[in-house]
Inverse folding.
């Protein structure tokens, strides 16, 4: 459990803003286009490295546009858990709020 992690803060901020998240654990996407915080966190923390994809709102039954991705590396210093992320304005603003 990582109660004060930057990765958890990123999930919380994205969900608070109304976005949908997917988690790739290095082999598969165990969580796809979800707002289920517990499932997202559990999937992320079950591996040492994962990719978090952030999407906009659902359009009918279709996933919204991909807004950005973040590489999460557990084992780094807490402020370096988010090891990399998409270089765009959306992700810069989202990560700066952490």
């Amino acid at each position: 459990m990582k109660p004060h992690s930057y990765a958890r803060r990123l999930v919380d901020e994205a969900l608070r803003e109304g976005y949908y998240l997917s988690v790739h654990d290095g082999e598969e996407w165990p969580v796809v286009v979800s707002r289920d915080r517990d499932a997202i966190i559990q999937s992320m923390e079950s591996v040492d490295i994962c990719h978090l994809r952030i999407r906009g709102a659902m359009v009918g039954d279709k996933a919204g546009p991909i807004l950005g991705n973040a590489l999460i590396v557990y084992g780094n210093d807490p402020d370096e858990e988010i090891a990399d992320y998409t270089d765009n304005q959306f992700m810069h603003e989202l990560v700066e709020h952490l």
